[in-house]
């Protein structure tokens, strides 16, 4: 793998090797469109919302309580509550970028956290203080290393955006403590929740200190050998069932599995361990092919927040945790940098638009923890000021007892510009499309600047204008042609106007660009029916609508007469069409059931002569999945039943006439 | 409702009022066929198997330990383990019937139990002894009244089969204790697990003592007012969310809900409370129409063994607990006696053949606890001598930590002859079909004897021969025409050879019968496709096969090349046909997936031009659902995917060719 000397340091992930070189937040700016709006809401609403809630529920105060020796009595929240402050700090640092508008908040939170760190670097408010359980006495559930991992990521974010500060120093002390405690000769264990691994690698990348990388590699190698207790959910829950390099698919708790895989890629890249990288790619392939929802969501078990069996992807039981979406993007991004393969950017795009973007409400002050693809009953609106149980996400809630998702979304949106584009010796690669300005230097200090303009994802036209090219030599602009264009035609228009079709994968233009040169990519953004592999039993006989990278859904608030979504039948033989305001209209029928004349038994002989559905169709309005549940309690479904004769056949005769029935009682 | 003076006392359920009068075990004998074989296995294998296991796991010893004051140290099994001995005792009593071949076993077990009863009648080995929690300190989970209920049913069974004995005396003392403790002025509570209610009513019927009935009525009225704690699963789990007479559907823990409903019918019948009876009928209707599996199985949630939401009946998540099947038969039988409506016998038949008969292995020494309708992976064979976790029923297990099902199946098979037929002033009604001999007396001491011969359920011909009729006056023989005949034609042939078609419901022949008269019912027993209400999302696009009352399934052991059931597609346009040895053969295809050339993404645009399935069909062998998993580890499915174009379309192209893929790593 090629050496990588990043020109920028403002990077969430800065591998020293890889096919592609990441561009920093000082090289890529998002200037408008879908993600600019989301990032604006994140900066102006979500970050402060998270800060205030953690103050209010006492998680911030835990650190003070620890410093004052009363934490055993006064501590609030779950074992991992500390990590939410760290994720928030990381988010603030990346959102501030090099501008640093959030410096005051960062300083204040750092000041709140600092006093709780012990001289040896250990920092956790749930263990090790007078009256508490001793440190690392519960590696399965204690989350101590997991918390240290998020602390380290926050410290790295500060150093990369504003230079090393107090937060970075705290993080380094914590990392030194972890190495001293879990290094050779130390505790032969791993944390029940991975997360420390990618953090230590990133710190090694920041500082150049090998020992952090060695410790991460040690954690990766140790896992899968049963050092953790075989608990209620089995060792598979925390991936301690099988060594990382021997596993063939992601399994167990989805967030844990994805964080671990991300850390394994980081270690593989830094140590040149291609076998390990190959193992993770193999696991990603099997997971995407068999254990991933249409939205990119991962995890179908509520009980243990875990992946289900192959092809067991029931939409009404989709857990699809927001944090698993965040972790999936982390993994895909690392694999993209390592391999250069566009399929990783394809999954990241799908997951960003349909999971990460779905979690926060329009106002950025309420969140989905899990992201079901089918909800049959309207839920009550969670109260503004109460903490919701974590998976009761019929509607977005302002905060959760386990509130990992809000801060995870916040830090991801804050980092987002870094995921748009990369560079290599030959030029610049565009992976995600948004209005953006990109400036970097290629081989030999060759300065280039690009300006991207697009209406994506509502439209499919992407214009890339070369604003600057400091050399007369040829270089390459690569554009990802999304996998979702398969079956339709995408066009690329060169600066000279030459127009050619391009296939899913990568489209390239190589030439001696001059300022003002424009490349145009035209993607076939239009609604189309999607069907699933027939082995996905749970969606047999249904179709879904996708438009560009966006998955659509039917939401009850768009149905007439207060109907719920179970009345919808669609006609897959008629192509769905664009409706007003980003909606899609599908031909279909509304089959209202007369519950007063219900059949007494819901199964009946197949009637070959069943009447075909009447010819008349009505337009069913569909909206982007990420936008649902912003208009009050509603029901929703992504997979829409296709019309069949039996769906409109009369119900079976009541075997005992309704009137007759009650007269027989008490006679 | 009409007064009921049963001619027989050998009855599991002996209401004093009702449309129909039950016939006792001394009036109905099963002489051959399907149920005779099952009852023979029950008598010769299952009863002893249960007795030996309870000895071996120490549940029998608990009573001795209680008598000796060391039960706090030595007790084995869950809180409700006592009840398994009582259910076994009840089963032995009914199986012994008036013959009493099992008297020695009954006496020995009674002797084991007796010393643990305290002078005030309380009998439970989990509470109230030195070193244990005090009596009734955990009404939610303690199961003390539930255990007393099964003890009382065992005592009633002894009295009704062999006359009042020691076991009956113990039961009466326990019942007196319950009335004294929970009656007016006593503890204002109910048991977390219903069961005491029908038991007290049956004891009142046996003894004529009103106070047992009053106590049962009190328990029914008390429930639903939130006297139980709002625990992990909510008050709905033990039906304490809503008064019985106000509920509109069965909900919460399925066995609890059904036992409670059965007790409510008993109370309603004895007290003439027609509103209560009407409420239970309404709940039964809604439950059967919206919350019941094709097999008659009830309960779709593993987590709390509960009913799911309306139409949420995923076959692969079917819990369909065996004991819920037993409880459903209890409820249906009571409603049949009260109302005379054949639909209750229809559900009982479906549940007996497809749930109760499915639980025990052919040898009667292993059992299903839950009865899934779809299993994707072969399970390991539970070891002969180990106790299985309760719901891990990929294969039948010899015993469970929560082993309610084996003894519940045993007592149900023992009682079975009592569920075949009833009588009223005008004659005899046949509800279930088996080779049997029926003798009873009608109005005015008119003696009648009937002999039933049939090959049911393999065949549909039922011959009823009048062996005796002591009066020359006319009387009526009624035969249930099963609901499953809807859409086909059933015939009835009178003694004089007159042949007429009969509709689902009841067919009657009234005349002055003479010895030798024969009636023949010809039921259209042949395989046919069944489809579900389109609101059952989980089985959309699939069909099932039913043949007479039997639900069929595809089992992997009948597929070629070691395939699992997920490769099957059937052609609903071709009628399934009878195969050899009670099998059914359906036209279909086997779509083997080449997992080496898997698609990287399981969703793809709907291709209107998808290739239609090839014309060639192969025969898919189906077997009765109750018989599955008797030939080693296998996979199974009841709902079979119908062939569609997309089920045979080629997989989508890999967006990155497999070969290309790995070369990009580590390059």
SSE inventory with pairings:
2 copies of one chain form a homodimer.
Chain A: E1 21-22, E2 28-32, H1 34-56, H2 61-67, H3 71-74, H4 81-96, H5 103-113, H6 144-162, H7 166-182, H8 196-207, H9 210-222, H10 254-271, H11 274-290, H12 322-339, H13 342-356, E3 374-375, H14 404-415, E4 421-424, E5 427-430, E6 435-442, E7 446-454, E8 461-469, E9 475-481, E10 490-493, E11 499-502, E12 505-511, E13 518-522, E14 527-532, E15 542-547, E16 550-555, E17 568-570, E18 577-578, E19 584-590, E20 603-605, E21 618-624, E22 636-637, E23 640-641, H15 658-663
Parallel strand pairs in A: 5-9
Antiparallel strand pairs in A: 1-4, 2-6, 3-22, 4-5, 6-7, 7-8, 8-13, 9-12, 10-11, 10-13, 14-15, 15-16, 15-23, 16-21, 16-22, 17-19, 18-19, 19-21
> What oligomeric state best describes the polypeptide chains here?
homodimer
Number of strands of chain A: 23
The N- and C-terminal alpha carbons of chain A lie at a distance of: 86 Å
Main structural class of chain A: alpha+beta
Low-confidence parts of chain A: 646-667
What is the residue-averaged pLDDT of chain A? 92
Helix content of chain A: 25-40%
Cα gyration radius of chain A (Å): 26 Å
- Shape category of chain A: globular
The number of distinct helices of chain A, counting runs of at least 4 residues, comes to 15
- What's the CATH first level of the largest domain in chain A? Mainly Alpha
What is the correct CATH architecture of the largest domain in chain A?
Alpha/alpha barrel
